[in-house]
Amino acid sequence: MKVTSAEFIKSAFERSHWANDKRPEVAFLGRSNVGKSSLINSLLGRKGLARTSNTPGRTQSINFFLINDSFYFVDLPGYGYARVSKSMRSDWGKMAEEYLSERETLALCVQLVDARHEPTTLDKQLHEWLAFNRKPFIIAATKSDKLSSNQLRKSLATIENELPDSRVIAYSSVTGKGRDTLWEAINAAVSNFAK
After folding, report:
1. Which regions of the chain are under pLDDT 50?
2. Which contacts (CB < 8 Å, 24+ apart) does range 46-50 have?
3. pLDDT for 171-186, tens place per residue?
4. Which of 28, 61, 96, 190 has the most C-beta neighbours closer than 10 Å?
């Protein structure tokens, strides 16, 4: 995929602020600190478009990025970070669930899990919710460059076992591993959506 343009459009803290021009959207979901911003930046070949932070739980809004003037990347708040208040965690959950449940322009969900660890309870709950609600999704196993080939093979098998009936792509924002494969899935979803 040749990215000719990628621009941050807006941060939405409530539904009335969502983009509303009917372009297809690819949503990125995952735990805080799983590398969502790094993955988005690496897909787009940009360093600081999606802001990365050393403080997990920073993204508290739904962020819209317009790609090639034809579809959006949507960065949803990270979930499961223990050091934020329960009410804040619950607000993020509500905001994300409202978006995922009701968004008619949602072409694909990319669920990120950390390749170095088994999927958490929250990872499993999100996967079950996506599957139950028949949302189109794939799983990106991030930080795969931190594992040896053997460790990665075992990790992917575990993820596929814990999150059944999923397509899992090993991804590294550092080396670019999995970038082309993930773009193929995104392109297919966006093209099918537009038909």
Report:
1. 53-58, 81-85, 88
2. 46/6, 49/6, 49/7, 49/8, 50/8, 50/75
3. 999 999 999 999 999 9
4. 28
Q: Report helix, strand and coil shares of the chain as percent, to nearest 5.
A: 40, 25, 40
pLDDT value at residue 87: 52
Give the amino acid at 41. N
In a domain? residue 15: no
Bridge partner residues of 62 (DSSP): 12
Classify burial at 37, counting beta carbons within 10 Å of its beta carbon; exposed 0-12, middle 13-18, buried 19 or more. buried
Q: What is the CATH number of the domain that holds 180?
A: 3.40.50.300
How much is the pLDDT for 98? 84
